[in-house]
Write a structure and sequence with these properties.
By secondary structure, this protein is α/β, with parallel strands linked by helices. The chain has four domains: about 120 residues, Tetrapyrrole methylase, N-terminal domain (Cobalt-precorrin-4 Transmethylase, domain 1, 3-Layer(aba) Sandwich); about 110 residues, Tetrapyrrole methylase, C-terminal domain (Methyltransferase, Cobalt-precorrin-4 Transmethylase, Domain 2, 2-Layer Sandwich), CATH 3.30.950; about 80 residues, Rossmann fold; about 130 residues, Rossmann fold. Helices cover about 30% and strands about 25% of the residues. It has 15 helices and 20 strands. The strands form four sheets. The protein has a six-stranded mixed sheet with strand order 13-18-17-14-15-16, sandwiched between helices. Helix 10 runs parallel beside helix 11 and helix 14 runs parallel beside helix 15.
Amino acid sequence: MNHTSDQHGNEPLDRAKGYVYIVGAGPGDPELITVKAQRVLSEADVILYDDLVSLELVDQFNALKIYTGKRKDSHHFEQEEINREIVRHASEGKTVVRLKGGDPFIFGRGGEEIDTLRNVGIHYEIIPGITAAHGASAYTEIPLTMRRISSSVAFCTGHPVNRIQVPDTDTIVYYMVASTVHDVLDAVAAKGRSGATMVAVVQSATQYNQKTYTGTLDEFRRREKAVYSPALLIIGDSIGQFIEHNWHSRKKKVLMTGGDSSRYSSTDYIMVHFPCRKISGADLDAVNRVLDHIADYSLLFFPNKFSVKYFFRFLFESGRDVRSLAHMTICTAGSAAAAELQESGLVADHYLEPDGTVGYAERLRELCVSGQQILLPGSSITDDSLVAGLTQMGNSVTPLGVYAHEVRQDEVIDLDFIDEIYFSSPVCVRNFQTLFKTIPGRITVTTADRSTQNEYDSLFGD
């Protein structure tokens, strides 16, 4: 009989010890995740992620999420502590994903983590990601290699400053140069590179706020020292291919505070999602009371995908399943909510979209929804206009907060890079106003319906 050996020789796979995936999340744009990474993240029990991983990506998955990065005034994990956390959860039989920015094996310390896993006998896989150099190259139109210009490229780091490497290659890409750009350039000049050599600093590569600074080696060295964070430094004559109005910069940046992003063409727009995380901060007593009397409700209306996600989480945790809802008419607002509902094995009886002039209440009026006991799961911040509209139609409405908004102060959107803001509901306007008291006049504001426009006028109007 033939046996196929695994990564640890002929040692059998011990499922009791769990399984670990070391995964590259890519350079910043959440859509640059690989298909395999997307699959294992959806199957994970635990996700440990760091600073360079987009929260928009992480928030898509239902696993326990553990932040291991470094932020001011926040506990952070040293590498050894991260290793212990990975081992601890895997030893409990869980599927663990260690999610790292870029690629795990290019300045990602993935090698240290698999050493730990080898030592304790926990099985693992490595899933590569798009490294920052590749992302920056593609999103700036600066080729790392190009016939007759650059036939070799090297990746280096900008630390430590007393041992900066300067390889003899046509193109050099330096990682982790937030505060050491001038130190690196001095080292490159000391190695004899011409002062006319082209230099580019790419800040926040592949993200909506990507910014590129170009010049010659001599020009950069004469500039006042600055901190570029997070940044990549590219040195080489292929930078001459850079154009300011490249494919990424020409697209308009739309800040989405909710709603269906398919309303904007991806060929012309980049969708930026408002960093207002949805967390399960529900009033558990209220949720349990509603679930205990679920038979009393005749219509279930989900205003967004998060209301679906967290409602079903509580439903299943209570020991119930979709059969508890068999007597109810189910409505969803928008395609994202409908798709999330299908993940739970249900298809909405009515799928609603506002037409820009009327809201969801008016759409339900068109369906002759009256005299119903309506359960309205949603945010802990009640959409008063929706409740009022449904009540005026002769319905009894029970709002149920199944999630709360957590605004991340360290991920506040830079409005200098935003061309348009789309508000999908009055609640979204109010959440936005907790961070921004004014909106620059050059930014186009679009609202989903009349009630959202009224809320916007109330909070931001002259």
